[in-house]
Amino acid sequence: MKQPGTEPLTVDYDMEKIAAGWKVYDIRIDGVSLITTYRETFAGKVREGGVDGLINSLSDKNRQGDARFRSHQTENFYVLVIVRSVLQGGR
Q1: In a domain, 30, yes or no
Q2: Which residues have C-beta within 8 Å of that of residue 80, sequence separation ≥ 6?
Q3: Residue 1 located in a structural domain
């Protein structure tokens, strides 16, 4: 991806084929993984307040209309992918 006046960024997608088509389960921008970033953030929340603290934090963000969770479909996708990754220790 290139924007005028900036260095180009590398954007990579990890995908899997499912019955309904292709599904993106991770995005890396310049080598920084969305799943890894969320996993580290979520692990900190779990250390601070347990799994209930993480769930409450995510619920609060959803209620605040955080830009990452604006559409219902996107919200479900990211939460399911990230929670699955955290619980399984990543791909």
Answers
A1: yes
A2: none
A3: no
The full DSSP string for 1-44 is ---TTS----EEEEEEEETTEEEEEEEEETTEEHHHHHHHHHHH
pLDDT for residue 48 = 94
What's the number of domains the chain is made of? 1
Q: Which of 38, 31, 15 is nearest to 46 (CA)?
A: 38
| Structural domain boundaries enclosing 46 | 11-88
Does any domain span residue 58? yes
Tokens of 31: 């080598």
Tens-digit pLDDT profile for residues 30-87 = 889 999 998 999 999 999 999 999 888 888 888 777 555 455 455 556 666 666 665 5
* Cα-based distances in Å from 24 to 15, 16, 27, 59, 66: 4, 7, 7, 23, 21
d(CA 8, CA 33) in angstroms, rounded, equals: 17
